Fold this sequence. Notes:
With about 120 residues, the chain is mainly alpha-helical. Among the domains are: about 30-55; about 65-100. The protein has helices at about 30-55, 60-65, 65-95. The model has no long low-confidence stretch (mean pLDDT about 80).
Amino acid sequence: MSAQQVEVQTLRGPGEGPPPSSIPPAQGRLSFRVKVALVWAGIFAVMAVFFAFAKFDWAWMRANFKFIATGVWVTILTAVAAIAIALVLALLGPLVASPGIRLHTESPASTPRSSEAPR
Length: 119
């Protein structure tokens, strides 16, 4: 390309370019799946190092396995119950805020303002 020739690239709107699956990946870049696999491998490696240095009493853990497993299930059930309660409260919030539902019996117009309060 000579100095006088200028290449102009236009921005393409949705649907004007090639589909994403036909775009070849850049050289030297890792795919998303490889990156996810590497992150999980790193997480498990850190956990393995932690378990190696934590010096757990494995004999006690084996002897009390039923108690520990019960604690895991209690934790899971508590989390599920908390999510269910949060869901109900989140669904009730907009209902209470809707104009058709009144939580008080007096209208705001009949309530005296602080400047109009009797003395």
